Hints:
Elements: E1 8-10, E2 17-22, E3 25-32, H1 37-47, E4 54-57, H2 61-68, H3 78-83, H4 87-107, H5 113-124, E5 128-131, H6 136-146, H7 149-164, H8 171-176, H9 180-193, H10 195-219, E6 224-230, H11 234-243, H12 250-265, H13 273-295, H14 297-321, H15 326-339, H16 347-358, H17 363-367, H18 369-372, H19 376-381, H20 383-414
Parallel strand pairs: 3-6, 4-5, 4-6
Antiparallel strand pairs: 1-2, 2-3
Amino acid sequence: MEKQAAPETDNSQDEPLFRHQLAGKSITVLGTAHVSKTSAEKVQELLETGEYDGVAIELCPSRYNSMIDPDSLAKMDLFQVFKEGKASMVIASLALGAYQQKMADEFGIEPGAEMRMAIDQAKKMSCEVHLIDREVGTTLKRVYNNVPWWKRMGIVGGLLGSVVSNEKVSEDEIERLKDGDMLETTFAQFAEEAKELFEPLIDERDQYMAARLEQIVSRSENKSILAVVGAGHLKGIESYLAKDEQITTPEALHQKAQTTIDRLDELPKKSRWPKVVPWVIVAILIAGFAYGFSKSTELGMQLIVYWVLINGSLSALGAALAKGHPLTVVGAFIAAPLTSLNPTIGAGMVTAAIELYLRKPNVGDFSALRKDTTHISGWWKNKVARTLLVFFFSTIGSAIGTYVAGFKIFNSLVG
Length: 415
């Protein structure tokens, strides 16, 4: 059996990296900051040595396609996004991208410049390019499933808050984020304070990328591979690769890696409760209306007025806060009391459809979307982002209105 060399961690470089021998092949994993000039320069420097015949990058197919096709946002079918229930995911992705873009603008470098450099240099050097990160949609769904429902709004609020914040980050601070010991300490604290986030966002992806590297080693012709990953994943990947260093045959390595990937690609099973609870609430409300009318027609009508005014007003307020068209605000007021009694369609679907009809985004709005969302006013100026906000805020308003009106109706019945 061939003796595997122990992983070699290189701390003498400007950028943190480690080298690992696996099944007779060499893997160099470089830790980068996604908005760092020196990271991009280091990628170029390493690839220009001619030492590598394969390049692995921390991108999934979706993010890779977005990077090589910057106009992909312009091809987005907004109505389809709302219909498929992907509006919240699009908003979260825009907020993440906006935060990264805002930091990048401060330092005059494009987000993911080191990944772009890796792709461009790999093509120039005729190196094979491998995508090793898990599909972003799968990661977000596993994060969503892992976080208790009462914390989910806090995550969205934190994302949006990071875009609005005027706090500046120095370039020195970004460079210091690549210090290995500091990263270990930071993520150890993160895991302790928010394990439900750390596991799917960091640890699972460490396992996934390590497994993908093992697949490359076991299946590709590449003898020496450079992997470019965010520095926060460096120690985790090193740890998971070290656990499998005794596996020497390509077949065993591939089988083990595939098992890990299949497990981490599995989408969480959808709970029945999110589908059942809305219908239970509707049944209770209808029963409340019926009980009110059984006591007196006047009481029954009063309950309906409470329902319409509270639910409709709060949804309309959400649409107004998003600076929706006046007719969109009126539509929210009319639609919310009705859609709240039909869980198959939400108030946001109706308001977004009205807003799209009245203020149809043009190609320029889609093209400017990523840039506009880097500052708070841009979310309201850009027609695409504003439509997303109309959907989001009117939906939240209707949801709050359902519970507020429900309690008002209950108090009226027992009072």
